[in-house]
Write a structure and sequence with these properties.
This protein has seven helices and seven strands. The protein has helices spanning 5-13, 36-42, 56-67, 116-120, 139-142, 147-171, 183-190, and strands at 21-23, 87-92, 96-101, 106-112, 131-138, 174-175, 196-205. Bound molecules: flavin mononucleotide.
């Protein structure tokens, strides 16, 4: 199976003189998955993961299902209040951290190295997942950060996380939605401003055999 060569490519490239954005393979719309009813039957939190890396196609399909653009008008697989599309999605692996661009279906390197520990926080099991997906609420993009905005942005993050849960259930991957993480360390690493708030994360891997 083809592994996450894109991350290896980032590390090999090393310096900023190379383009740091990589296109993902096209999502496989004919992918064989469980039926909707079987998917709901399988949806559950899983905290044990195989150390096997996700294939490029599985990562591509996972990211597209999570928050990819699914219409010509640029709307996404996850709804957002007033269509503000303010949930930023970051991908943590042992090789580095990338930001997912839903419109281009591409990954842009943000930080090299293994930083899954700061997403895991005090729950060590989460570091064992080959991929952790982090949802950041961008209140600048939302245009407001009052209490009502906070609840709407949190709901939007929940939809994105639920897309991950359901894709994983249908595709035979393992995940759990988590609020636990080291928020301060993540904000520092990713260079987030005070209006860009880590809200939820999902470790994702193949189920442990
Ligand atoms: C918003 C939210 C935050 C959660 N945070 C964590 C967490 O930090 N760590 C964890 O292990 N599970 C976390 N969970 C998973 C819940 O513990 C889990 O969904 C619940 O126990 C029910 O189990 P089930 O998902 O298998 O039905 C979270 C779930 C939600 C919806």
């Amino acid at each position: 199976m083809k592994k996450l060569a894109i991350f290896a490519a980032f590390v090999l490239m090393g310096t900023a003189s190379f383009a740091q954005t990589t296109n993902l393979p096209k999502p496989n719309m004919q992918r064989q998955t469980l039926s909707v009813m079987e998917m709901f039957q399988q949806r559950k939190s899983v905290r044990d993961y195989s150390p096997e890396q996700l294939s490029e196609q599985d990562l591509s399909d996972l990211l597209w299902a999570t928050i990819g653009a699914n219409r010509e008008n640029g709307n996404l697989t996850a709804p957002t209040a007033m269509n503000r599309q303010e949930i930023l999605l970051y991908v943590f692996t042992e090789k580095g951290v990338c930001r997912y661009d839903p419109k281009a279906h591409s990954l842009t390197l943000v930080a090299e190295g293994d930083h899954r520990d700061i997403v895991a926080g005090r729950q060590a099991f989460a570091k064992a997942a080959p991929v952790s997906l982090l949802m950041v609420g961008d209140f600048d993009k939302f245009g407001n950060n009052d209490d009502h905005a906070k609840s709407l942005v949190s709901m939007d993050a929940g939809y994105v996380s639920q897309n991950i849960d359901l894709f994983c259930a249908a595709a035979g991957l393992a995940t759990v939605p988590r609020a636990t993480m080291d928020v301060k360390a993540i904000q520092t690493l990713l260079g987030l401003n005070e209006n860009q708030v880590p809200l939820l994360n999902n470790p994702v891997g193949y189920p442990k055999k």
